[in-house]
């Protein structure tokens, strides 16, 4: 497989990151995870907008980002994959002294693609199990566009889910409100209303979240962004999680409370897949 690094397409065996790279040393960078279907990247502009907003937030100003779309398609073609997981990483580059920011050191841009491994169809039919993490989400209300390399809190939450035999962990904020999963946004349905936590709860503005919000009306659901307590989530009729790779994945259990995979979730799932087909073909 080829990867793209700072202006070059090189075989992955030759791609190296400096030991002084701040992404490596401090998690000082941002990334995007994208999915290509049939050789087309779904919602590429939205991913790139979020990437730019995250970089702006961190005062990282890389050159050459305007070519990123071209680079992604070139890489998909070089690697001969049309259904792909793609990742763009931008770090602040090599360190000056300690954590001080050296405005002159150029950022590092890396792009790679991989074959995509979405969850099996059985999980889409039966749903997955979630736990409520003991970890508190550290995301500030204005960090909704920040898909940071500093991922440790989410990694530990995901680990918590895995060792408890669950698929995903949901994190609460300091006020005890539901925020997001370690790699996903969360939705629930009650009495024909679709609920999701608002950005101010400390939530990544997921690209899939935004698409799903736009599908609610077509599914006959009214949409409400509302601060949710775990108890309110437990009282829902249906729950599902979303991200670029898993799309819309039903939840069958949270902390022992069981949910059915209901018609609202199935309708949203179907509408999402139709939209992908319309935009990406296949
Ligand atoms: N929240 C977190 C913490 C994530 O890491 C992700 C994606 O990886 C999401 C939400 C969902 O975002 P998207 O729909 O853009 O993939």
Keywords:
D-amino Acid Aminotransferase, Chain A, domain 1; binds pyridoxal-5'-phosphate; 2 domains; 9-stranded mixed β-sheet; D-amino Acid Aminotransferase, Chain A, domain 2; 282 residues; alpha+beta; single chain; 6-stranded antiparallel β-sheet; 8 helices; 15 strands
Structure description:
With 282 residues, this protein is of the alpha+beta class. The chain folds into 2 domains: 2-115, 2-Layer Sandwich (D-amino Acid Aminotransferase, Chain A, domain 1); 121-280, Alpha-Beta Barrel (D-amino Acid Aminotransferase, Chain A, domain 2), CATH 3.20.10. Helices cover 28% and strands 29% of the residues. The protein is built from 8 helices and 15 strands. Strand 14 (247-254) and strand 15 form a beta hairpin. The chain is globular and about 55 Å long. The chain starts with a strand and ends with a helix. Bound molecules: pyridoxal-5'-phosphate. Pyridoxal-5'-phosphate binds at residues 33, 154, 180, 183-185, 204, 206-209, 242-244.
């Amino acid at each position: 497989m080829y990867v793209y690094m700072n202006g070059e397409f090189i075989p992955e065996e030759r791609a190296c990151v400096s030991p002084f790279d701040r992404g490596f040393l401090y998690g000082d960078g941002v990334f995007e995870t994208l999915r290509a279907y049939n050789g087309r990247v779904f919602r590429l502009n939205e991913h790139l907008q979020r990437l730019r907003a995250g970089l702006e937030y961190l005062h990282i100003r890389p050159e050459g980002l305007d070519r990123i779309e071209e680079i992604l398609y070139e890489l998909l073609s070089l690697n001969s994959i049309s259904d792909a997981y793609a990742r763009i990483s931008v770090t602040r580059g090599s360190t000056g002294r300690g954590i001080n920011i050296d405005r002159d050191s150029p950022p590092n841009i890396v792009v790679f693609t991989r074959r995509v491994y979405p969850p099996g169809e059985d999980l889409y039919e039966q749903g997955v199990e979630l736990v409520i993490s003991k970890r508190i989400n550290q995301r500030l209300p204005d960090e909704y566009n920040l898909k940071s390399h500093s991922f440790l809190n989410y990694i530990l939450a995901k680990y918590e889910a895995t060792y408890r035999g669950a698929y995903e962990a949901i994190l609460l904020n300091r006020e005890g409100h539901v925020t997001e999963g370690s790699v996903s946004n969360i939705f629930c349905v009650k009495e024909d209303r679709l609920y999701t936590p608002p950005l101010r709860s400390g939530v990544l503005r997921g690209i899939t979240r935004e698409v799903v919000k736009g599908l609610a009306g077509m599914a006959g659901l009214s949409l409400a962004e509302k601060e949710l307590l775990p108890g309110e989530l437990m009282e829902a009729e249906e729950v599902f999680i979303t991200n670029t790779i898993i799309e819309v994945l039903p939840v069958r259990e949270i902390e022992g409370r069981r949910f059915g995979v209901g018609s609202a979730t199935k309708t949203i799932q179907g509408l999402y897949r139709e939209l992908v087909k319309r935009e990406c073909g296949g």
